[in-house]
Each structure stands twice: as C-alpha cells, then as structure tokens.
Amino acid sequence: MKISVIITNWNGIHVLKKYLKTVITSSPEADEIILIDDASTDNSCKFAKKIQKKYPKLKIIKRKKHYGFGKNSNFAVKKASGDLVVLLNNDLVPHLGYITASLKHFNDPQVFGVGFAELGKENYGKIFWKNGYIQTEPGYSNKTHATAWLSGGSSIVKKKLFLKLGGFDDVYAPFYFEDTDLGLRAWRSGYKLVWEPKSVVNHQHEYSTAKMGKQFLIYVKERNHLLCVLRNITNKKLLLENLFWQFLRILSGPNYIKIILAAHRQLHSHPLPISEKKLTDIQVLEMLK
To answer: In which domain, by residue range, is 108 found?
Structure first.
C-alpha cells in the first residue's frame, strides 16, 4: 500500500523551521510528504521550497484562499496518492517507526484508522452521555485499544473510507469536534478506530488559537458541542434530554440562546452528515464509554 503524509499549515513558518525536516526523516515509509498550506501570508511555502530541494519527496500545495482546518485537510486527502494517509499538525514531531507500528491494524478491512500516542498524553478517546450532551474524556492503557475518535492532526486513515464518509464535516468550521464527529460516524457505519501506543509522536503545542480571542473560542466550542449532538443523535429520549439541558443552560446564561441559534443556522446551511448507520447512536455510546 502506498502511504502519504499530510501536514496542514497556516502561517506556521516558525514551527516548520523547527520540525519539517524531522517529520520527513521520521517518515521513511511514506511515498510522499504533502504540505498543504491554507493561504499563509508568512512565507511558509517559500521556506518549504528550500527544504524541497534536499527532500524531493516533499510536495507543496498552496491554497489561494483560507478554508480552515477541515476543508483544507479534506482537499489534501483527495490529492494524496496513498492508500493510507497520515494526518499531522505542523507542530507535531513523530518518532521513527510511528507509521510502521500502525500498519498491522490495516490488515483488518474494517479498520478506518489508527490514532498515535502523543508523548506525555498517551490516551485513547472515550465518549459517554451525560447532562444531555455527548461528553469526551481520555482513557489510559499501555496496550492497543479502541478509541472513539482519531485526532485530526495525529493519526493515519484509509483514504478510501475517509472520503467515503466525506472526511471532516465543514459544519464545524473553523475547528472543534470535527474529529469527534468523524469518529462517531465511522463507528456507526460499522468501522473500527484503534489507538496504537507504539506509534509515538511529540505534540509541541506551538500553534495557539489564543490569538483568536477567548470569547470567540468559547462560542465556537459551545456551538459545535451542540452540533455534535444534533448531527449524531437520533434517539428521541436522548434528544428530549438535550432539549431539557439546553433550557437549563439558557437559565444559567441567557447568551446560550445565541449558541442554539448559531447551531441551527449551521444545520440548515449544510447537507446531512454521511454515515451508513449500521449501528445506532445508543450502541456506539455503549461501546465507547
């Protein structure tokens, strides 16, 4: 199987200078390394072209317009030649062998993808239902484990299945919950997501969203948390619980009405999510708690 590594970038020249060479040399299994640049204005591509002279495996795709993480990642996966696609944030540094350690899982045709173990934060994803919402929390193990979702910047997926489910849902733009949503849709469609502790990466966390403003980040996170429920839950009892808890959130903070209205605007302006619905939402929640 051919393997493509995709590095998403937006105005990240400072991290590319630190880590791009290491990503390339730590990914000898890859047939190509794609830097997908989301219309950066900081000379990221100019720097990458210098690296490309020494490492011709590196390919650069520069978008003329800023689309955000999800859309940019989906575009790159479509352009990738690999059967398997590694998804990396630009501030993530993989350890040698991280790809090889994940490959055995793809012998199972039902495996959608494999999540990497971030050094110092070695956990898989758990989800459960509480207070009318889908809740997430880390799960810990030193062995391979099922995971509720794959990090959009620290995982490897089957290109065919990723595109079959439409990739990251643009309803969540600019960020938050798109990888949780994709994980839920993959499990509901009868696929498996695996976390592999031997696929080790360092996440340097040098790209900060803080410059976007705390209030904006809270708004997007709350809106997308509600959207994740409305896009993935069909059970009437759970939806009634969600309505009740929406009402309680309005009572505790009237501004939550703006969150509800924003979520419904997103719902009405985007097509229905893609999934095969082989399992119910209740079954998926029970499996992954």
So the answer is: 3-210
Residue 251 lies in a domain: no
Q: To 10 degrees, what angle do helices 256-269 and 236-252 make?
A: 140
Give me the count of residues in the chain.
Answer: 289
H/E element, 146? strand 145-146
Judge whether 275 lies within some domain: no
Helix (H) or strand (E) holding 8, with range, is strand 3-9
Q: What angle do CA 280, 169, 167 make, to 5 degrees?
A: 85
Angle, CA of 64, 65 and 70, to the nearest 5°: 120
Per the structure, the count of domains in the chain is: 1
Helices (H) and strands (E) in the chain, counts: 10, 11
List, as one string, the DSSP characters of 89-140: ETTEEEPTTTTHHHHGGGGSTTEEEEEEEETTB--EEEEEEETTEEEEEEE-
Condensed to tens digits (0 to 9), the pLDDT of residues 111-161 reads 999 999 999 989 999 999 999 999 999 999 999 999 999 999 999 999 999
The residue-averaged pLDDT of 167-171 equals: 97
Summarize pLDDT for 186-240 with one digit per residue, the tens: 999 999 999 999 999 999 877 656 567 889 999 999 999 999 999 999 999 999 9
Burial class of residue 95 in the structure, from the number of CB atoms within 10 Å of its CB (0-12 exposed, 13-18 middle, 19+ buried): middle
> Would you say residue 62 lies in a domain?
yes
Band (pLDDT 50/70/90 cuts) for residue 274 is very high
